[in-house]
Amino acid sequence: KYDLVAFGGAGPLHATVLARAVGMRRIIIPPHPGLGSAFGALLADLRVDKVWTQAFRSDRLDGERVDREFARMTAEALLDLRNEGFTGIPTVQRSISMRYIGQNYEQEVAVPPGPITAGVMQALLEAFHRQHEAFYGYRIGGEVIQLVHFTVTAVGAVQKPALKPLPVQPPARPVASRPVYFHESEGFIACPVYRRADLGAGAAVEGPALIEEEDSTTLLHPGQTLTVHTCGLILSV
């Protein structure tokens, strides 16, 4: 039912053994698997979180003070985004983490835009009861609720590049051969070594084989097959 995604410098080297061990039939190896974290950091949306921690009771809540603090945190979060160089239109989300008095864990309840009126607060408390019941299987109607964390999250979306389709290339030839020990064969086998950059869309490689790139190496065991998808993903069965 599931595919294994292999990333990191060593992930594609061990993924074929791991997939066999757990009965997974397909492995997906993205382009430049050893650079995934760095690539993700460059493309991640800008995000600022502001949290105001208190221990308010639902029967003694000062809604006007909560409004003021939400406004303060929103202004600070938007200023932080601008200072990071974001010039677009951000999204702002608010939430309150709640729990029954005496509990150690909270449920985060989304807060709609606008003032925290008595009606809005009543709806938020009811939302907490529903979430608690969905998560734990019960609710305590009429119980005083503790409001612990008031959070504002501002997100500046960063434009993501489109993946270019990989062109079809002439059949790749091995650039070297290397002896590799395989446990299932109880000995060394001469493995052809391919450059990943030489494998175009639709290319297929039969194991045993090694696929090398600057940031990682993919190992195919005997009997495994590798194909290259048009977006550059390697699919190994």
Overall description:
Strand 1, helix 1 and strand 2 form a beta-alpha-beta unit. The mean pLDDT is 93. The chain folds into 2 domains: 111 residues, no CATH class; 111 residues, Dna Ligase, domain 1, CATH 3.30.1490. The chain is an alpha+beta fold. The strands form 3 sheets. A 5-stranded mixed sheet has the order 1-2-13-12-9, covered by helices on one side. A 4-stranded antiparallel sheet has the order 3-6-4-5. The chain is built from 4 helices and 13 strands. The two termini are 13 Å apart. The protein is 25% helix and 34% strand.
Brief characterization of the structure:
This protein is of the alpha+beta class and 237 residues long. Helix content is 25%, strand content 34%.
Number of domains: 2
Give the strand order, joined by hyphens, for the main sheet. Answer: 1-2-13-12-9
Number of E-type strands: 13
Strand content: 25-35%
Sketch the major β-sheet: 5 strands, mixed
Name the helix and strand elements from N-terminus to C-terminus, one letter apiece: EHEHEHEEHEEEEEEEE
